[in-house]
Amino acid sequence: MKAVILAGGSGTRLYPVTITVNKHFLPIYNKPMIYYPLSLVMLLGIKDVLFIVNPQDLESFEKLFGNGSHLGINISYKIQEKPNGLAEGLILADEFIGDDNVCYMLGDNVFFGHDLVKIMKDAKNEIESNGGAYVFGYYVKDPERFGIVEFDENGNVKSIEEKPENPKSNYAVVGMYFYDNEAVKIAKQVKPSDRGELEITSVNEEYLKKGRLKVKLLGRGFAWFDAGTHDSFLEAGEFVATIEKKTGLMIGCIEEIAFNNGWISKDQLLKIAQPLRKTDYGKYLMEIAKQER
């Protein structure tokens, strides 16, 4: 399985902050927003990652991540000329995905919870074994803002609707999707919505029609932030700060994950930490390097 992280878009919900800065570089507490989805991909053991980025931001992404070799992974980039909807990311990633399955992540979503990685690995294994699509639902108070999934009395998915005026449930589909190789083909057949966008909900609807969509609800004990608004951005940062201060462990520390995965050596980790030695982040990496794996 390969991973595609959508990190383009205009970030208009965070204006005026994002007029000159891509939102994915903004800090969620002590690290860039984009670190969080990348960290989950790495925790899944996926080493081939494609970032979908705006033309004007490519150089900054390359400066931040390069080709990923310092993390023991392979990072590549694809330009999205203008934001035409979430499903377009799958189309742009066609060549990169090739014959593989794909983990598709939104770059502004932050997740945390007990057994989150296990749940994601279960989804990955389900797709690799049986194909189809596997997505996650989360209870929200403002369902009009999201793609909403409806269930029958037996818990089976009845419908998925994008930003409905009259929501049929309060369960939003979050920005983490696992698809078999059919996803690209399906995305190419999606017609623009009334909003003029290629909706990822339309991709999920097609899998639902074929009886090949699984939805797992993330209940109590899970936190999900769509950090694309001022309030949710602030909430995500406060949440991460609280957890890290209480536990002494970092969320979304990509270098730590690379080290724990055995993808980089102690010397490589210390080399990364050295320029950051005056920061809490750099000090944390140095402490990690001292620990036996």
Automatic annotation (TrEMBL):
Domain of life assignment: Bacteria
Instruction: Give the EC number(s) under which this enzyme is classified.
Output: 2.7.7.24
Enzyme kind, highest EC tier: transferase
Q: In its keyword annotation, does this UniProt entry include Endoplasmic reticulum?
A: no
- Domain called Nucleotidyl transferase: residue spans: 2-241
Identify the cofactor(s). Answer: Mg(2+)
What molecular function does GO assign, one term?
A: metal ion binding
Q: InterPro entries per the record? A: G1P_thy_trans_s, NTP_transferase_dom, Nucleotide-diphossugar_trans
Q: What Pfam families does the record tag this protein with?
A: NTP_transferase (PF00483)
Q: Which UniProt keywords apply?
A: Magnesium, Metal-binding, Nucleotidyltransferase, Transferase
Where are the membrane-spanning stretches?
none
Coiled-coil portions:
none
Can you state which reaction this protein catalyses? dTTP + alpha-D-glucose 1-phosphate + H(+) = dTDP-alpha-D-glucose + diphosphate
What PANTHER family does UniProt report for this protein, alphabetically?
GLUCOSE-1-PHOSPHATE THYMIDYLYLTRANSFERASE, GLUCOSE-1-PHOSPHATE THYMIDYLYLTRANSFERASE 1
Of which family is this protein a member? Belongs to the glucose-1-phosphate thymidylyltransferase family.
Q: What does this protein do?
A: Catalyzes the formation of dTDP-glucose, from dTTP and glucose 1-phosphate, as well as its pyrophosphorolysis.
What is the protein name given in its UniProt record? Glucose-1-phosphate thymidylyltransferase
- Look up and give the organism this protein is from: Desulfurobacterium atlanticum
